[in-house]
Amino acid sequence: MNPIHATQRYAGHHAEAAYSRWAPVYDLVFDLPFHPGRLAAARAAGSAAGPGGEILVIGVGTGLELPLLPSNVLVTGVDISAPMLRAAQARVRREGLAQVKGLHVMDAAELEFPDSAFDVALAPYVMSVLPHPERALDEAWRVLRPGGTLIVMNHFAASGGFRAAVERRMETAAAWLGWHPNFPYAAVGGWIASRPDARVVEQRELPPMKLFMLLRIEKASGP
Fold first, then answer.
1. N vs C: which end of the chain shows fewer Cβ within 10 Å?
2. From start to end of the chain, where are the E strands?
3. Burial status of residue 52 (CB atoms within 10 A of its CB: 0-12, 13-18, 19 or more)
């Protein structure tokens, strides 16, 4: 095996194991504090998709976004963690979420969908979890139809002050936590700047305490 690919696969498995540890308590810990951002992202995704539109949720986790998406769209969710997806599948059954057409164990950096398969790709709170966020962004862009929308909701590191110091200190525990508290905006902003067919149409900070940012990025409809 190519040593670079072997290293990337090891990093992916390591991140998956750390992330999956949260599955039994994920909703308890991450539901209410993250709800304003989830709701904003779900509303943006539903509006961009329109009735009958197809939405891909990347890093669907336990499915907290799924009930927030409109019932007149078609939703596919992917996640690297099988324990997380089992919780999402139980939610779909329990809440009768007929708009969810499929949930799949899948690596965000290697999506198993054809090009231009979705109207919207929604990545809620997942970029700082991924070992290779730029590859996941490339894949999300590939599966978006021309004129489609990528919605990223994430925490980005503060540029200074007390919060920045706390995030740098927490970063030492990133391997155990399963995400990067000191995740830089440049990891996404640099990727956007490198794409001539990408245009940011919305960028806003959200509660609590403006810790999270929603980015709505439109894909050009043609050359």
1. C
2. 54-58, 74-79, 100-105, 118-124, 144-155, 198-206, 212-219
3. exposed
pLDDT tens figures, 111-144: 999 999 999 999 999 999 898 999 999 999 999 9
Spatial CB neighbours of 28, under 8 Å, sequence gap ≥ 6: none
Distance spanning both ends of the chain, measured CA to CA: 37
Q: Angle at which helices 133-143 and 186-193 pack, to 10 degrees?
A: 40
CA atoms lying within 13 Å on the CB side of residue 70: 16
Report residue 119 as tokens: 């109207």
Per-residue model confidence (pLDDT) at position 33:
79
Nearest to 212 by CA among 162, 139, 140, 163: 163
Looking at CATH, the fold of the domain delimited by 3-219 is given as Rossmann fold (3.40.50)
Using CA atoms, how far apart are residues 37 and 49, in angstroms rounded to an integer?
A: 18
CA 123 – CA 142 distance, rounded (Å) = 14
Percent over 70 (pLDDT), the chain? 84
Q: Cα-Cα-Cα-Cα dihedral of 121, 125, 126, 129, to 10°?
A: 170
The Cα–Cα gap between 153 and 135 comes to: 17
Q: Which two tokens stand for residue 191?
A: 């990727």
Listed in sequence order, the residues at least 6 apart from 121 whose beta carbon sits closer than 8 Å to its beta carbon are 55, 56, 58, 140, 141, 143, 144, 148, 149, 150, 151
